[in-house]
Every structure is written in C-alpha cells, then in structure tokens.
Design brief:
This protein is mostly helical. It is 52% helix and 3% strand. The chain is elongated, with a radius of gyration of 26 Å.
C-alpha cells in the first residue's frame, strides 16, 4: 500500500509521528512530489532552450529571467522545503526576492540603456566618431 505525502505516518522505529517531525527530523515529502517537480524543471529547461534559439529581440532576456524565476521558485518551495516553513522564513524569502528583483531590474535597465548610447553597438556605425584621441602633454618644470 502506497502512502500519500499528506498522510501522517510513523517515522523510524515508530516512536515519532511525522506531525512531530519538525522537532527533530524535518518535513517528510513523498517521492512523487519530487518527481513531479523534477519533471517540471526538465520541461522548463527545454522551454528555455527553445526560447533561446528564437530571436525575440530584447524579450529573449526577459523570457529567460522569467523561466529561471519559475524554476527557482520550484526549487525553493519543494527541494528547500520553504513551502512548509513558518512566517519568519517566508518573510526572509520575500525580502530576498525583492532585493534580487531590484538588482536584476536595475542591471537589465542599465544594460539596455547603455546599449542605446554605446557607439560600438550601433548597427550602422553612424554614431562612431573617427577623431583621434587627444594627446597628453608632459609636465615641464
């Protein structure tokens, strides 16, 4: 008889119930949950490879970050057991996600802003000036 991941059952020698596992053994998750999450991660990896091979312009980066974020949430919730943690862990995770989102958003915004101003990345080369660099005169006493 197979047991579902949500059922409570004795652990080890039977002296400790799974509902008391947070006292010493941690949370018990069924194998099927891990297999479903693993399958979802494989599918999302395949989708990210397919999207990377399609030219979507500036949206390639956004799709890559979106898919990577979904994968990170799955790993954190199930493999790191955040799904079954208390409020303090959830607050910590929420704060961390906000900080990472701000860092990624600032970096991506800066990257695309600099790409418009960078003369080397100009497609037609019209913005590139061919003037020589100024020379530095040595100091004379």
């Amino acid at each position: 008889m197979t047991r579902r991941a949500t059922e409570w059952y004795p652990l080890g020698d039977g002296s400790l119930l799974a509902e008391e596992a947070d006292k010493s053994l941690g949370h018990v998750v069924g194998r099927s949950t891990y297999l479903w999450v693993f399958g979802a991660l494989i599918i999302l990896t395949g989708i990210s490879v397919l999207v990377a091979n399609v030219d979507l312009g500036v949206f390639n980066l956004f799709f890559a970050i979106f898919i990577a974020s979904i994968k990170a949430v799955l790993v954190a919730l199930f493999f790191m057991h955040v799904k079954w943690e208390g409020k303090l862990i959830w607050i910590t995770v929420f704060y961390t996600v906000i900080v990472v989102a701000l860092l990624i958003g600032g970096t991506v915004g800066d990257f695309y802003l600099k790409a418009k101003e960078d003369p080397i990345r100009a497609s037609d080369g019209a913005n590139i000036s061919h003037q020589p660099l100024p020379t530095v005169q040595p100091l004379t006493p």
